[in-house]
Inverse folding.
């Protein structure tokens, strides 16, 4: 069996016409007939019934057709990926990142861009729109987000990349200065400045659940739809914030301090999600870069 046999079989199955199949594959009609006979001999079944007037595909032929299409498509994708690897990579991938997903995809993108400088990487922030549509609608090749934000859909696949602990962020000279960690109990009287539930619902709900577990009534001073606005408020000493640890590390230590939380398990699982129908060869290469750094659910992402 070879790719030419399968291509000709697919053409006959789709057109039910040997002459048209020959024209589509730039071969003679006798060649198409030979390829079909060779496949029938290999599978030991009849794929078509033929008369002077009609060509009818058999049940066995109908069963083979989707497999033949998949094999041909897979070989085409493999040729494209191998050529890209050989040529240094060409193309583009588009990545959507939840506002709390920064450090992990940044490392993957850095590694990928060094290895495949010819492949452009476009990074966008995911908004509060339909996440299922964002993943499967073709706008993004990959989306990074908390695992619990991934919609339940048979058309979506995901890979757990890491678990992210929460951290407390304060102004530079706040009363916790000089320490490495704080306890949740110490936040009972603090004014909280949080990213809004509409922007990062999983992180927001996780914070609320933690505070309730410790019987702390949240004293929320303000919520923010933008990370920069929240940091301006924190650095000005209006209140303190609780955000994923890697997000805290992305900001300048000139204006703020960050502290781990030492009396609770605050880990949130993060994933990379993508559509099962993804066909971008460049995206396949990026997936390998992500797998290199993915630590899975049992490991906290080290910064």
């Amino acid at each position: 069996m070879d790719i030419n046999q399968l291509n000709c079989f697919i053409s006959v199955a789709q057109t039910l016409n040997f002459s048209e199949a020959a024209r589509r594959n730039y071969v003679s009609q006798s060649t198409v007939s030979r390829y079909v006979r060779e496949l029938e001999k290999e599978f030991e079944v009849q794929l078509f019934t033929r008369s002077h007037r009609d060509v009818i595909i058999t049940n066995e032929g109908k069963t083979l057709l989707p497999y033949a299409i998949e094999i041909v498509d897979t070989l085409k994708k493999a040729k494209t990926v191998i050529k890209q690897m050989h040529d240094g990579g060409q193309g583009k991938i588009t990545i959507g990142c939840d506002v709390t997903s920064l450090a992990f995809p940044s490392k993957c993108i850095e590694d990928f861009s060094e290895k495949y400088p010819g492949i452009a990487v476009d990074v966008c922030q995911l908004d509060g729109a339909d996440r299922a549509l964002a993943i499967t609608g073709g706008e993004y090749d990959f989306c990074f987000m908390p695992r619990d934000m991934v919609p339940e859909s048979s058309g979506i696949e995901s890979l757990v990349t890491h678990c992210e602990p929460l951290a407390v962020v304060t102004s530079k000279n706040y009363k916790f200065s000089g320490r490495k960690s704080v306890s949740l109990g110490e936040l009972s009287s603090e004014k909280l400045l949080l990213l809004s539930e509409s922007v990062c619902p999983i992180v927001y709900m996780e914070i609320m659940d933690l505070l309730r577990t410790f019987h702390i009534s949240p004293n929320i001073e303000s919520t923010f739809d933008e990370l920069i606005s929240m940091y301006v408020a924190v650095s000005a000493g209006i209140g303190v914030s609780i955000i994923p640890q890697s997000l805290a590390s992305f900001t300048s230590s000139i204006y703020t301090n960050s502290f781990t939380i030492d009396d609770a398990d605050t880990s949130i699982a993060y994933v990379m999600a993508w559509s099962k129908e993804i066909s971008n060869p460049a995206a396949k290469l990026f997936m390998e870069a992500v797998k290199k750094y993915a630590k899975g659910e049992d490991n906290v992402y080290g910064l």
Notes: The chain has three domains: 3-86, 88-163+269-293, 166-261. Residues 3-86 form a domain with the Arc Repressor Mutant, subunit A fold (CATH 1.10.10.10). The chain has ten helices and 13 strands.
